[in-house]
Write the structure tokens for this entry.
Amino acid sequence: MDKKKLFLICLFTGFLGGHYFAINKYKRGILYLFTAGLLGFGWFYDLIRIAMSGDFAMVIEEKERLARKQKEKIMIQKKLEQEKINEYQKEGVPYCPRCHSTHLTAQKKGFGVGKAATGALLIGPYGLLAGGIGSRKIELTCLNCGYRFKIGEKR
Ligand SMILES: [Zn+2]
């Protein structure tokens, strides 16, 4: 697509997404069609981008590629996180419900502050199995995000 031609298309039909239809980006074209070129801002922005960039279609292509890559990365992270949680649950390892860290401190209920700081014990990954806690409720504090929660209510 010739740059000058695309610029003119954008200038006259940009608020209808014309320049996106011209480079076969129909999704964006439709978005522009229904939002009047993102209320004119997208239209204006694209006019500048078409004027400034060597190949507007390539710029959009690259942007979409990066967005896809980012999305993929997040999906993989989510999957790994879920696998980690499944593993924790299987092994009975306590983990923070908010950030899923296993870096927790435990404080037995009833302990006061001060001297009772000795009552706090540090739990590393896999260091404390839920079965070993007994039936007593233990309040855990996540060292990663500071979230407080209780475990040991069952069993
Ligand atoms: Zn946490």
